[in-house]
Amino acid sequence: MHLVRQNGKHGQRNGQRNGQRNGQKSGQESGRGNGQEGGQGAGRGNGRRRHRFRVRATGALLLVAALGSGCAAEGGSGGAAHPAGGAQGRPAAGGPAQARGPAGALSAYVQKVRAARAARVAAARKWGLKLTPLPAPAPPRTKPEITFRKGFEVGDDSLPPVFTTVPTKERIVFLTIDDGSEKDPELLKMMTELDIPYSAFLSDYVTSDDYGYFERMQGRGVVLNNHTLNHRYLPGLSYDEQEKEICGQQEIMEKRFGKRPRLFRPPYGNYNGDTLRAARSCGVEAVPLWSAEAFPDHMEWREWDRDLHPGDIVLTHFRGKADWKGTMPDMIRQVMNVITAKGYAVAKLEDYV
Ligand SMILES: [Zn+2]
């Protein structure tokens, strides 16, 4: 017997309903998938919240954090100015800057921070954001140790952990976009100009008509992750069927995008022990779910306090006007206004997981 690990009855009921609906045309399926994925956390608003995630607060991490805060205090852009990583935001430990001495290095650094800040302000204005997104701190040199969220275990701690929040004390959240039916070129442009990192979780049945779009996304620094071949309700499948859904997608993504994903998200957030065993068998290291979901006109909160917390993972979808009330840029405007107003920056998930 395989229990559905998500929210007990809620998850199972929702998931089954979805599973039955699978196979319908992609737009509809996608739309429903969202509702169900949104339903994923509904059973969790029971007061149990922060869990015992361990953070390795090493000296290096604290130093990096201090540098990151320094950038923020400057009112400028820090390490996150470049999606590829925060190292660029810090003074180099050698090279021309050092040749000018500490004062020269600092001056060059301040100039760089100011330029990044100005670019960010201009991009925010251009794309109609109410507030300029906050710069993320430089990523940790050592990734935090991530374990299963309490209540999400399947009885084997050695399996890839399922979690909704990354253990960190930084005021950062992570943006993740699922499925892949809507391929809006404006999204690529907007995110690059705003310099906001995000991660994609792709399902082949909606991406196979245009892998090129996601190649371009990858070329802009976005990591592409696994969301199965056909977006099935996995706990309703045998181990072999689940393996085909998960590992088949690993193969396709490696072939199309040159990299085998390390991260996997089960459709609707539903999984069982077989899901995690199958995922591990083909290289999956972690299973990030989400703690809030973004739409063009509102947020759906999964935590009892209906708020963001350090390290929270935010879910949204590749959708267009046919699926929800707006475009991808509309959705980004909405979620970024919320994230920034609450004092959070968006960091890159793969820097931490
Ligand atoms: Zn999905």
From TrEMBL:
Disordered: region residues: 1-50, 73-102
Pfam family, one: Polysacc_deac_1
UniProt cross-references to CDD domains, sorted A to Z: CE4_NodB_like_6s_7s
Superkingdom, taxonomy of origin: Bacteria
Gene3D superfamilies in the cross-refs: Glycoside hydrolase/deacetylase
Domain NodB homology stretches: 171-353
Biased composition (Low complexity): 13-29, 80-102
InterPro entries hit by this protein: Glyco_hydro/deAcase_b/a-brl (IPR011330), NODB_dom (IPR002509), Polysacc_deacetylase_ArnD (IPR050248)
Extent of Gly residues compositional bias: 30-45
PANTHER family in the record: GLYCOSYL TRANSFERASE-RELATED, SECRETED PROTEIN
Name the record gives this protein: Polysaccharide deacetylase family protein
